[in-house]
Structure formats: structure tokens, C-alpha cells
Amino acid sequence: MDPMDRLSEFMKKLTLLLCLASCLASALSIHSLAAQETSKSGVVFDVSDFESAGATGTWPDHWPQKAESSIESEAGNHFIRMESQVPGEMVMLYREVPIPEGVEAVEFSWKQRVTGLKRGEKSWFDARIMMEFMDAAREKVSPSGPTSNRSRDTNGWESKSVVFNLPEGARFIKFMPCLFNVAAGTYDLDDVVFKAIPKLSPEDDPAHQRKLAAMRKAQAQRDKALKNYEKHGGNMFANGDFQKDSNSDGRPDSWGSPKGDMSYGSEGGNNFLRLQSDSTDKMVMHYSKLDIPAGAEALEFSWDWRVTDLKPGLEPWHDARIMMKFLDRSGKKLPGAADSYTRRSTDG
Description:
By secondary structure, this protein is of the alpha+beta class. It has a domain at about 45-200: Jelly Rolls (Sandwich), CATH 2.60.120.260. It is about 20% helix and about 30% strand. It has three helices and 18 strands. It has helices at about 5-40, 50-55, 205-230; strands spanning about 45-50, 70-75, 75-85, 90, 95-100, 105-120, 125-135, 140, 150, 160-165, 170-180, 185-195, 260-265, 270-275, 320, 325, 335, 340. The strands form five sheets. Strands 1, 2, 3, 6, 10 and 12 form a six-stranded antiparallel beta sheet that branches. Strands 4, 5, 7, 8, 9 and 11 form a six-stranded antiparallel beta sheet that branches.
């Protein structure tokens, strides 16, 4: 073959190879983009409808089987049930849901039915779903996911859904539906679905909006506290000296009715609060929650006290003391002042 013909043939083959390589690269790029968009386009990455397990008599994959749980059937529909058998005990079906690469936000939907519910000793001892997040190393990632709770029976089945952004680095959802230390009750779940959605803007993010609302509420409370501080002559306590008793009922204004081993006393025209204990293992406490006035950066706390016939308890901190804790606007504890205490009676 003529050298020029061979060169021409080579150039044709080279051009063809370059075209194929370009097409392959484009296809890979399109696939990569498609994969990225898939995680944001409403793809369901975890679903539990309990139908296959119920039909075959097997337990659903990735769900723990406990004595307090069962797969039930009504009119051909299967669902999972949690039932409180011992008052005050936790009943939880804990499972971990892997998060696909690239997912930034989730829509979680489910159906639930709550019957015969009697809350436990605390207000949050109810039927609830809690969620937390873990990274690839299975370390906790903050903030936690949304919590859905129910403190009374539903009117049959109800459909629920919530959307939320994932914290950076989240690779697993710790999914925790439970009867949280209730006295009694049954909690049924069905059609549990996790679906990838596009990242939520601050305006569309319920968690962000709740945070803003909490900040506005906290600021309003601090503004109100400042007005009250000024109204009460530079004292965060209303009627802090106990002297004002507008209706002469023996209860100083703003302090309410004494409870338990607390009472109000009066000597020589001076009113005061008294805490009295008749047992070594009994806590007697007056609790007050005060909003710090807006703009305050430091506080001075002063008081008069009298301790009589004090006998400390078994532990070093079983004594007469004033404790103060500081909370941020979200209710989390902050470093605060040291306790003031005495382990012996005062001289008046």
C-alpha cells in the first residue's frame, strides 16, 4: 500500500477511536450526573410496607424482632406493632438506615395508629419516633433528626411525613420508633418510607424555621425580663424581699403557694421563705427559672439566709445550698456559678 494511503487509513482509525473515546467519556459524564441527580430526585432508598413478610410468615428484613413486637394483618394489609407489656418499660424497634452517597435531604413518611395509650411518669413518656445520625465511622453527627411524638390515641390510622436536611457527613440514620416508658398502649406502623429530595432552602427547612422561631421567642423573653428588671428596681426577682402581700393572705406576691416542706414565715414585720426537712434522704427545693435581661453580661446575686439545726446527710453535698444553672436559648446547660452552701447552722 502506498505510504500516503497507509497514513490516510491510520488517520481514519485514529479519528474513529477518538470519537469512541469522546462518546464513552460523555456517557460516563452523563451517568455520573444522572447518579448525582438521582439522589436528589425523589428516589426511595428505604421502604417497609411489611406485605412480603406478612404474606410469607417471615420477619421483615432489617427490623429487630422482640417479644413486644409482632406483624399484624387487617383486611389483607400487614403492619408492624409495638405493645407495652410492662408499665414504664421502653419498647423500641431500633434499626439503622444507610444513606446513599450524595443524599443531602430526606422526606420521611409513614402511617401510624396509637391505641390505649397511657403516658408514663414524665410528659415525654409517650409514643414517638426519634432519629439521630452517624458518619461512616459510626460516630454521632449533630444535629439530631426530627422527633415525632403522640401523647394520646389517634382516630384510627393517620398518614404523617416530615422533611429534613442531613448534617454534613451523615451516612446512617438511627431510626428509633418506640413506646417510651409508657404505662400502657399499642403503637402500629406501616408504609415506612425514606426518600431522597433536593436540599432544603432555609425558607423550606422546618428545623431552620423552628430555630429562628425559638431565637425570636428567647429574645422576646429577654426583652420582657429587662422591663421587669427595671420595674422591680433592678432585681430579677419580683418581690425578692417577700414584703409585698397585696391581699394579705400570707403569701408574698409573685411567689405562689408553698408546697411540701416549704412555708412563708414572718418575724418582726419581715417576711421570708422557709424550707424545712425532717428526713435525711429528702430533697426540699424551691425552683425558679429566670430569664436573663437583654444586654446583661454579668450578674450580682445577694441574699440573706438563716440555717438552723442543720445535720448534713451521707454525701458531702447533702447540706443547705443554693444552686444555679445556666441554660442557652435552646435549653442546653452552660457553665455557671459555683454552688453556695453551708454544712453547719448559721449564727442567726
